[in-house]
Automatic annotation (TrEMBL), chains A, B:
<feature type="domain" description="HTH tetR-type">
    <location>
        <begin position="2"/>
        <end position="62"/>
    </location>
</feature>
<dbReference type="Pfam" id="PF00440">
    <property type="entry name" value="TetR_N"/>
</dbReference>
<dbReference type="InterPro" id="IPR009057">
    <property type="entry name" value="Homeodomain-like_sf"/>
</dbReference>
<feature type="DNA-binding region" description="H-T-H motif">
    <location>
        <begin position="25"/>
        <end position="44"/>
    </location>
</feature>
<dbReference type="InterPro" id="IPR050109">
    <property type="entry name" value="HTH-type_TetR-like_transc_reg"/>
</dbReference>
<keyword id="KW-0804">Transcription</keyword>
<dbReference type="InterPro" id="IPR023772">
    <property type="entry name" value="DNA-bd_HTH_TetR-type_CS"/>
</dbReference>
<keyword id="KW-0805">Transcription regulation</keyword>
<dbReference type="InterPro" id="IPR036271">
    <property type="entry name" value="Tet_transcr_reg_TetR-rel_C_sf"/>
</dbReference>
<protein>
    <submittedName>
        <fullName>AcrR family transcriptional regulator</fullName>
    </submittedName>
</protein>
<dbReference type="InterPro" id="IPR001647">
    <property type="entry name" value="HTH_TetR"/>
</dbReference>
<keyword id="KW-0238">DNA-binding</keyword>
Amino acid sequence: MSLSPALITETARSLLIRYGLPDVSMRRLAKELGVAPGALYYHVSSKQVLLTQVAQEILAPLRAEAADARTLMLRLRELMLPLRDSGDLLLLAYALDPRLPPAHVLPAQLRAQGWSEAEASRTTAAVMRFALGAIATEQNQRLLDAEQDTAVQNTADQNPGEAADEDPLAVEAEQIYLHGLEVLLARPSLRA
Amino acid sequence: MSLSPALITETARSLLIRYGLPDVSMRRLAKELGVAPGALYYHVSSKQVLLTQVAQEILAPLRAEAADARTLMLRLRELMLPLRDSGDLLLLAYALDPRLPPAHVLPAQLRAQGWSEAEASRTTAAVMRFALGAIATEQNQRLLDAEQDTAVQNTADQNPGEAADEDPLAVEAEQIYLHGLEVLLARPSLRA
DNA sequence: ACCTGAACACCGTTCAAGT
DNA sequence: ACCTGAACACCGTTCAAGT
């Protein structure tokens, strides 16, 4: 089988899922496809557009879902959180396309709930920015914790006193996310 | 004068201000200091800790300011927005230290306004995530617009029909930021 | 049309060896 | 103690040349 834009983005996506964004390099991608690095540039104009394409594909399932704003925002977090370091990716894709799912349906949904057009579009932008910031923060915290864990591994082996707790940081992160959504998506009449 | 952690972070900061984050590499930094790249690692353990140190220094002025939450968050945006691509930097520094200014004083301020401790800490986390997401988004949009501008330069020269407008995207971005702050920092009694 | 080989101009980090 | 030189293992991108 020969190369194609679709095959390249699909392979990039699989690398992202398996190893995280830092391991999605053009050279690694080429190796995975059994091809010279330069070959990719016959099908894809740059790494940046390739990655935003990948982001769009990962979020594509959200286009088919008919759920309310809150649920869609929760799904966004579920989809992206496991992809290591993908926060930057999302931030870039959103800057390039402010209609990135789930932002593509939020304004219409909020309008249907009685929001004005100006309020609906401002709130969509605000809630997306909050979500992207929150997801990137959570991913960074996980990475940093993982580094610290491996660094402390030996000391922990010699000192198994404290039990492994339920990762209160992760639980807290989810509460923060829920809280932000609740406040930002609250009906405007409640604030007037 | 010889190398020191302080001199290195100060030079990194000046590179960041002058050229943006992509131009702050250890090798570029070494060249700027007239030293071999390896020399930096005698004073600094990694690029990551160096950059978070730089972020802390850039935000240090906020530690001295005695302003309300909203003003501090606006100052945060003013400080970071001009530093090209520094959003990632901020996201990393905040993940490493959730008490990064202005987060270090927000909980106490909110408590003084009658918020409960739980509400104050959750709101601080939410508003910081929103701000970091918003700043990163704005910086990315600027970068992408700049790329497009240089690409369209020639066509624009030949076609000077439309006047250069007031950059409505930037104005809109500020409104979104103000709106997010207003909603997230609204007194909890107004939502109960 | 599609791809290779090779190059250009970079990265972060380590480490023996020098002073 | 502090730094150099050189290496290791990478980057994104371009482009003549091949098929």
